[in-house]
Amino acid sequence: MITLKSEREISLMHEAGKLLAKCHKEIAKMIKPGITTKEIDQFVDDYLKKHGATPEQKGYQGYQYATCASINDEICHGFPRNEPLRDGDLVTIDFVVNLNGALADSAWTYGVGSLSDEAKELCKVTEQSLYRAIRQAKPGKRIGDLGFAIQSYVEAKGYSVVRDFAGHGLGPTIHEEPNIPHFGMQGRGQRLKEGMVITIEPMINIGAWRSQMDANGWTARTVDGTLSAQYEHTIAITKDGPVILTEQESV
Ligand code: MF3
Ligand code: CO
Fold first, then answer.
1. Residues, CB within 5 angstroms of ligand 2 (ion)
2. In this structure, is residue 141 part of a structural domain?
3. Ligand 1 contact, 63 CB (< 6 A)
4. How close is the Cα of 55 to the center of ligand 2, in Å?
5. DSSP class per residue in 97-140
6. Of the four, 153, 168, 169, 245, which is 20 to 30 A from 94 by CA?
7. 158 vs 167: CA distance, rounded Å
8. Is residue 181 included in any domain, yes or no?
9. Is residue 251 in some structural domain?
10. CATH, residue 236
């Protein structure tokens, strides 16, 4: 069942989203060769607690960390670890903030030190694909319009869209209906309605779209070892169009 949120619920989720966006801006300043994803995870855990919030992912279906930290060919759900990040790495930090019971979810791929041209281009195209989909996120559009906006754009650039993970409805729990695939056909799927809150979170690979699961049962990585990037926002569908609840530029 898809739950529609009231204006009040959306404004509480927006408060969670603003805190999340501020935390991402702090993370951006910390990312340097030598720092570990364990240190970033600890920072996020402390930052949220200091601001009266909690990391919703910790304990979710047995997941043990505040953040997911996925490096290079890891697509998503990487575990924070004690291994220093190296110059040229890509690292995606993904977390869900719970502020007064309201949730917000956003992932961002960061470059460590100086990136190769191919890594930079992947990040740019992946971020742009997210914003292309967001422009479609208004009442009357369909879920297929979102996936189409992403897939048509990234495939024209020679990249592929991960199909094994999707965006989702959000709040009061992390994963709600509807499922939001990042590929699809225009005019297909359910219609978006005012009051829906969804995530859009394209995971884009340089090589093949297929993923394989690590032995830890969580972490997905590309089958061919190529780089993967991901940008995710939480979006409210309002009568005036999409509102990005986790926008970093607005905080
Ligand atoms: N933030 C993730 C998403 O975008 C959810 C991760 S669930 C966890 O869907 F358990 F891995 F944390
Ligand atoms: Co997320």
1. 94, 105, 107, 232
2. yes
3. yes
4. 11
5. EEETTEEEEEEEEEE-SSPPHHHHHHHHHHHHHHHHHHHT-STT
6. 153
7. 22
8. yes
9. no
10. 3.90.230.10
Residue nearest to atom 12 of ligand 1 (CA): 57
Question: What pLDDT does residue 136 have?
Answer: 98
Q: What is the pLDDT of residues 50-61, one digit of tens each?
A: 999 999 999 999
pTM over 0.85? The answer is: yes
Tell me, what's the pLDDT at 202? 99
| Each residue's pLDDT tens digit, 158-193 | 999 999 999 999 999 999 999 999 999 999 999 999
| CB of 91 closer than 6 angstroms to any ligand 1 atom | no
CA of 196 to the centre of ligand 2 (A): 17
Residue with tokens 């709040």: 171
What pLDDT score does 139 carry?
98
Question: Which residues does residue 7 pair with via DSSP β-bridges, in sequence order?
Answer: none
Q: Residue 15, Cβ neighbours under 10 Å: how many?
A: 16
Range of the domain at 36: 7-244
| Best probe residue, ligand 1, of 45, 60, 214 (max atoms within 8 Å of C-beta) | 60
Mean pLDDT over each residue of the chain, to the nearest integer? 98
Kindly state whether residue 110 falls inside one of the protein's structural domains. yes
State both tokens at 169. 């409805």
